[in-house]
Give the backbone structure.
Amino acid sequence: MTLSLKDTFGTAKPVIAMVHFPGLPGRPWHDRAAGRARLLDVVGRDLAVLQDAGVDGLLFCNEADVPYQLAVGPEIPAAMAAVIGELLAEVRVPFGVNILWDARASLALARATGATFIREVLTGVYESDLGMIAPDIGDLAAYREAIGASDVALFDNISPEFASAIGSRGIPERAKGAAFLGADAILISGPAAGVPFAMSDLVAAKEAVPDTTVVANTGVRADSIAEIFAVADAVIVGTSLKVDGATFNAVDPARAQRLMDAARSARP
């Protein structure tokens, strides 16, 4: 599919904000006593704050399911779908979903909830703190068609956090390969959540695939977004919007508003 940011998000250079779930059922940080009520409270509160700040899109993610899995059980997309479904009437902007690091589960969740895109590692091979990440975009494309999710865009993280690429192909080659294989957007990340990427990587990706959407995926802050928007077509931001800039804290309304004010000023 061809992704138009303006048509999808209503603006050039959209800001897509992370909505982090608390620990989900079966994961070490899940609060069994509080159960689904806590999931709804935390996700619903951050959703409201981010939309009040004027973000252009949302990305629901199981960020607190540490340590992450390369293949999740059915309980993870089921829990996320239940919560998103209950809050769907309150969602006013396009949204994506991300189950770390299971692209197939993310696609199933997207199909169930009406998400616009998924964010995953979709191409390349990486050694990581979780083991070898070796996605199969051909198999995923077939699965997308099989479940009727051909309208779900694929956001491909070609420099995933906590990982290093195997082989000698750099950012430009990986970006070109991902675009050729059907990725709708190319994501550039730093070494961990909330950590800035190298601007040289962002520039290299955009120069390699000028006609493909290139997204800054980690470490975006209010004081850096103007520089980032000079190159990137969009940003995904989470940690810098949180209380004290800590990934697993609640969204801070003042930080979210400050970033959106800076984004509007930085847009052409």
